[in-house]
Amino acid sequence: MVFTREPGGTPFAEEIRKLLVDNPLAGKSTALNNFFLFWAAREELQENFVLPALQSGKHVFSDRGDSSTYAFQLCGEENEQLLPAFTYMRQLVFADSIRRRKPDLYVIFDLPAEVARERALRDANRKQSHFDNRDIGYYERVRNGFKKFAKLAPVEFIDAARAPEEVHRAVMLLLAAKMVIPEFAFIV
User: Fold this and answer.
1) First-to-last CA distance in the chain?
2) Which candidate, 2, 20, 13, 14, places its Cα nearest to that of 43?
3) Which long-range contacts (CB under 8 A, 24 or more apart) does 169-173 make?
């Protein structure tokens, strides 16, 4: 198994991440601009990290993915007119071919909007971005966006309002059920 994140995961994709998240001007960027930058970082990650890992027989786990682009840029930022572009970019980046394929499973950690916002704003372990500081309506649209994305891809929702140990156990049970990890890899 290997783990990565979006945007990021390769040196070039990490540079794109700096533009999207860390740059002080990022909060003034448009949903369309963010949309294309996220896809650029995603393509870089696919080509230079995910595909080589899959070809070597590894499972790849990513913190975020195209589900986030759908939920944040299309739904959270109220730009659902980007849906045709989203569908097209998804076909390009995850083209079913010998080398490429769509993700097998999306695991969405679901929280009520109020809880998600409160956690984002008090998380001292990471730097807050312009995405974190949005109003509660934005968080509600994002949550609904993840639910809408579930109609496009294989999605499993995990109730993330529970204690961390319970969330971890739910994830492990899900991965065992999907045969990603052997069921004996953890104690129930």
Assistant:
1) 21
2) 13
3) 171/107
Query: Which run of H or E residues covers position 61?
Result: strand 60-63
Measure the CA dihedral 42/66/54/184, to 10°: 140
- Asked whether the bond before 7 is cis by omega within 30 degrees of 0, the reply is yes
pTM: 0.89
Residue 188, pLDDT above cutoff 50: no
CATH of the domain at 97: 3.40.50.300
Distance CA 112, CA 52 (A): 37
- Per-residue model confidence as pLDDT tens digits over 119-152: 988 887 877 777 888 999 999 999 999 999 999 9
Q: How many domains does the chain have?
A: 1
